[in-house]
Write a structure and sequence with these properties.
4 strands, membrane, mainly alpha, 9 helices, 306 residues, single chain, two-stranded parallel ribbon, transmembrane, SLAC1/Mae1/Ssu1/TehA
């Protein structure tokens, strides 16, 4: 028997949503292929008499377009998420570096007895803080975009919130230490310089924090509603293997073709969608379950919201 694991409500909701879109995409692909095949003989008749250049050219691009739309995300979707998150992490590291540079600039200003905010040391500090904010904001946008494609599926609401709001957390990491340091040493500055520096730091902190906040994190109620709706649509038998990560709608899918059922001592399981979820298989096959199209639809739906 295959070892089963408990799947979180959020994970099952996301998988069920994918399943509904996947089944529709699979059915649409089949009907599109049949209709295109039935149009081919009709297109060949005028081509034989008058216009050889028109030979069945109309149905073929349609098929190619459908195949490209389905297959493109299969290879690039996971890679794009990984690239977005790596890019965000690199930018956050650069933001911490800018914060360290601001520390050194401020310390250098204190050692040199600088008092005017237009002194080179303070200007360097302000420039480093501006770069700090830019790095944080851009990193947060990349992180939010990756979460639109592949959200956190942890069972804990706190963990999901921390994951989605990581941009805000990093803004605090990149600004609070320098802010505390500035306030601690502010007695050595004149009133005008102290006011200007604290105002600039506060404005950058608040602005970067607001732009880094993810205001589209799904609530628990929305997750449960999507799970129920999608599960009702995605009914019927599905298939999965002992060592595979996806479920399949077609028992003749190339990825599972030739597999022996478990009842005969093999590794091929069959059951309902709920049973596939219980077996920790909540990713639709890109070939037979329309998983690639489901990912494409999710990405397209997320773009206008940004």
């Amino acid at each position: 028997m295959e070892k089963k694991s408990t799947v979180s409500d959020a994970a099952k909701a996301e998988a069920a949503k994918k399943a509904a879109a996947a089944k529709k995409a699979a059915e649409a692909k089949k009907s599109g292929t049949k209709s295109a095949a039935s149009e081919k003989p009709a297109a060949k008749k005028p081509a034989a008499k008058k216009a050889p250049a028109v030979k069945a050219e109309k149905p073929e691009p349609v098929l190619e377009e459908v195949e490209q739309e389905v297959e493109a995300p299969a290879s690039g979707d996971k890679g794009s998420v990984k690239g977005l998150r790596i890019g965000a992490i690199i930018l956050w590291i650069l933001a911490i570096g800018a914060e360290v540079a601001a520390f050194f600039a401020f310390s250098y200003a204190m050692r040199n007895g600088a008092q005017n905010w237009t002194d080179p040391e303070f200007l360097l500090m302000i420039g480093a803080l501006v770069l700090d904010a830019i790095f944080c904001i851009v990193a947060a946008q990349l992180w939010k975009k990756s979460n639109r494609i592949k959200p956190c599926l942890a069972s804990s609401k706190l963990v999901r919130t921390l994951w989605h709001q990581l941009g805000v957390i990093m803004v605090l990491v990149c600004f609070l230490p320098i802010g505390i340091f500035l306030l601690a040493k502010s007695d050595k500055l004149n009133k005008k310089t102290k006011t200007i520096l604290i105002t600039i730091l506060a404005a950058l902190l608040v602005g970067a924090g607001l732009l880094s906040t993810d205001f589209q994190q799904p609530s628990t109620e929305e997750v449960q509603a999507m799970q129920q709706e999608a599960t009702e649509e995605a009914v019927g038998d599905v298939y999965w293997t002992k060592f595979g990560k996806s479920y399949h709608f077609d028992p003749d899918c190339p990825y599972i073709a030739g597999k022996t059922p478990v009842s005969e001592g093999g590794t091929l399981y069959a059951g309902t969608l709920q049973q596939a979820f219980d077996a920790n298989r909540w990713d639709p096959c890109d070939y037979c379950a329309g998983g690639a199209q489901a990912k494409l639809d999710e990405a397209a739906a997320a773009q206008p919201a940004e």
